[in-house]
Amino acid sequence: MSLTLKFLLMLLLVLSHNVDSGSIVKFLPGFGGPLPFQLETGYIGIGEQEEMQLFYYFIKSEKNPKEDPLLIWLTGGPGCSALVGLLFENGPLALKFEVYNGSVPSLVSTTYSWTKMANIIFLDQPVGAGFSYSRTPLNKTSDTNEVQNIHEFLQKWLSKHPQFISNPFYVVGDSYSGMIVPALVQEISEGNYICCKPPINLQGYVLGNPITHAEFEKNFRIPFAHGMSLISDELYESMTRICKGKYVNVDARNTKCLKLVEEYDKCTKKINEEHILVPQCDKINTQETSPDCEYYIYHLIECWANDESVREALHVNKGTKGKWLRCNWTIPYDNNIISSVPYHMNNSLHGYQSLIYSGDHDFTMPFQATQAWIKSLNYPIVHDWRPWMIKDQIGGYTRTYSNKMTFATIKGGGHTAQYLPKETSIVFQRWISGQPL
Predict the structure, then answer these.
(1) Neighbours of 346 (CB within 10 A)
(2) Which of 6, 8, 143, 315 has the highest count of CB atoms within 10 angstroms of its CB?
(3) What is the mean pLDDT of the chain?
């Protein structure tokens, strides 16, 4: 082989290794000085022609990135950006809550980042969420399609970052990710048995306030409402007796039950479903949201992500995205996994460990519903219900099962970790390091 041919082959290898390998971000608008952690952003092409370009933020562990676990974070929706998780829930930066004055909103360091002991890939998925985009018109996607797309993303990302192949790997998310994460764990597990691709070192998964079966969870809102004194004893007893535990898609012939559901709706319709103690205010029309509203922060994140200097710093491809939205509800999507419980069962049979946590003031995915489907797996209790502590204060309650599943409540928490990120981080950090909560 001639020297010229050898040189060309070596050049091709170098180029193929560096293509789409991501860009290092050292500074971000709104944050003073260099970033105190290692951030990489980039795209991974998915599909036969790589027409789907999935955008990711990768943050190395601040402890020992060579050996610490590797996580992929999937925000719910479907269609909400992973930037929500990064800046609101468990990342090393957060948006400062201040009135927008036209300049780039400020970023501050957090004390509760999960990156203190884990490497995390924050992924914008499905295509259309965050900064992910398609080179061709968007086709309708689905739960099962997304499971395959994310699996393909992971295989390609790891092939471009081979130094992380041996790290213990976990799939993590919350809310609607409860439909995707268990199925993705199963997909990765099955894929690890297929020839010729390096196996992903899958160890388990983490879910916060996860949806598992929409109708199932909605039915549990009634006992939750009663337990939180949102409805009277008399109304609850009547609903239990007449509706017989079925409060969603009620048979039209059961007029008595329908009447009782109406009474229930009158009592609860102005309650903030994501956290019953937080005042209800507009979290959709962010430009009209008052700074007095807890969700004014959603306006700030849109101002930040839509600033041209931010997009340039993040290495977002120009012209690929119009207005960045916290959650893109217009993505054509088929919710074709009706229940994720069978996936949980299968993952348990294969020995994967899991942490399921619930903010106990979440009305959308009541903790009673989560406890009920966990109990339906029929695994013996190893450590029974007990409080977990932060110093000498109760942070919530926990129970562990023989299938390596840990359930924990976050006392005073809501639908996502953004309501109590410090407390949620303590639960995660104890669990991922193998300590009792």
Answers:
(1) 16
(2) 143
(3) 93
Distance CA 85, CA 252 (A): 41
Q: Which is the catalytic residue, given 124, 143, 174, 362?
A: 362
CA 292 centroid distance within chain: 26
Structural contact between residues 209 and 360, judged by C-beta atoms closer than 8 angstroms: no
User: Residue 124 in contact with residue 42, Cβ under 8 Å?
Assistant: no
- Any residues with CB less than 8 A from the CB of 432 and at least 6 apart, and which? 69, 117, 118, 170
- Geometric angle at alpha carbon 217, from 90 and 84, rounded to 5°: 20
- Region 224-232: mean pLDDT is 97
Span 87-108, average pLDDT = 96
Cβ–Cβ < 8 Å for 92, 109: yes
Confidence of residue 288 (pLDDT cuts 50, 70, 90): confident
Q: What is the pLDDT of residue 410?
A: 98
Q: Is 312 exposed, middle or buried (0-12, 13-18, 19+ CB in 10 A)?
A: exposed
The radius of gyration of the chain's CA atoms, rounded to the nearest angstrom, is 23
How many residues in total does the chain contain? 437
| Cα gap 57→70, rounded to integer Å | 13
Instruction: Tell me: pLDDT of 3 over 50.
Output: no
Burial annotation 186-219 (CB, 10 A radius, 16+ → b, else e)? bbbbebeeeeeeeebbbbbbbbbbbbbbeebbbb
Examine the residue annotation and report whether 175 is marked as an active-site residue of this protein: yes
Contact between 115 and 214 under an 8 Å Cβ cutoff? The reply is: no
Mean pLDDT to the nearest integer, 391-400: 97
Residue 42 neighbours by CB distance under 10 Å: 20
- Asked if 200 contacts 208 with a C-beta cutoff of 8 angstroms, the reply is no
How is 342-386 classified by DSSP, letter by letter? HHHHHHHHTT-EEEEEEETT-SSS-HHHHHHHHHHT-PPEEEEEE
Is it the case that residue 403 has pLDDT exceeding 90?
yes
In 26-182, where do the E strands start and end? 39-46, 52-59, 70-74, 93-95, 107-109, 119-123, 133-134, 141-142, 169-174
61, 113, 175, 348: which one is catalytic? 175
Q: For residues 29 and 107, what is the distance between their CA atoms, to the nearest angstrom?
A: 8
pLDDT the model gives residue 195:
66
Is-catalytic flag, 315?
A: no
In whole angstroms, what separates CA 174 from the centre of its chain? 4
β-strand partners of 242? none
Domains and CATH numbers, the chain: 20-212+332-432 (3.40.50.1820), 231-268 (no CATH)
- Longest CA pairwise span in the chain (Å): 89
Q: Which residues pair with 401 in a beta bridge?
A: 381
